[in-house]
Amino acid sequence: MVRSRIGALVVVLVCANGARADAQSFFTGLLTGYIGVARDGDIGDAARTGGASIAVIDDNGVGAEIDVGYTGSFDEDFFDDASVASFMLNFIGIYSEGAFRPYVNLGVGAVHLRTSLFPGQPTSTQTEPAWDAGGGLFVVLNEYVSLRGDVRYFRLWERPTELVLRDPGFFDYWRLSIGATFTWPMR
Questions:
Q1: Per-domain residue ranges for the chain?
Q2: Alpha-carbon distance 140 to 146, whole Å?
Q3: pLDDT in tens, 1-60
Q4: Phi, psi of 5 (to 5 degrees)
Q5: Which residues is 29 bridged to in the sheet?
Q6: Helix ranges, 24-143 (H)
């Protein structure tokens, strides 16, 4: 009788441990909304920027991220109207332990530029392939919410040919942002 109870207890513990291992997540989803500033490079004066990103990382902290950002009304002393939107697919690597988690990212995508020099002048637009690189820090508040500080550099692969810009070289800029990140386990 004692042996059968011990045997049943062992079976229950083994099954419970196996169920708990199956319940563990292999991937984590991260959804971030952010605000910040874009400047330097071809954006002379600091301009407000905002956007969102969604990422999937594995248990080792390696994954992919889609980042969409918009910066409007930059260099108002030079342009009547100017804005830039970025759509990037990034590799992301996060140190996945502790309350402070640094990360790096590198990716490719597209940047959509819109400029107009004078009131009433037609607005010029151009979408070009681009790359970005950067990093930052997640400050983990709890299992589901973190704060994120981020610095990224954006640069077009080629010189824009259809736009009037302050500098005729490669269009580039820096983005500094802060945001809130919501985390959830994925299978």
A1: 28-186
A2: 4
A3: 544 444 444 444 445 444 444 445 589 999 999 999 998 877 777 789 999 999 999 999
A4: -70, -40
A5: 56, 184
A6: none
Average pLDDT over residues 168-179: 87
Which tokens sit at 118?
A: 């004078």
The separation between CA 100 and the C-alpha centre of its own chain, rounded to angstroms, equals 17
* Nearest-angstrom CA–CA distance, 110 and 46: 21
Q: Is 28-186 CATH 3.90.1580.10?
A: no
Compare 20 and 102 and report the one with higher pLDDT: 102
The label of the residue with tokens 């513990």 reads: 13
> Which pLDDT band, with edges at 50, 70 and 90, does 168 fall under?
low
10-14, 124-128, 164-168 — which is least confidently predicted? 10-14
The CA-atom distances, in angstroms, between 132 and each of 66, 93, 121, 157, 169 are 12, 14, 31, 10, 17
DSSP 1: -
Look up residue 130 and give its two tokens. 């681009």
Would you state the structure tokens that stand for residue 89, as one six-digit string? 């697919």
Q: Which two tokens stand for residue 175?
A: 């983005």
**Residue 75 token pair:** 């260099």
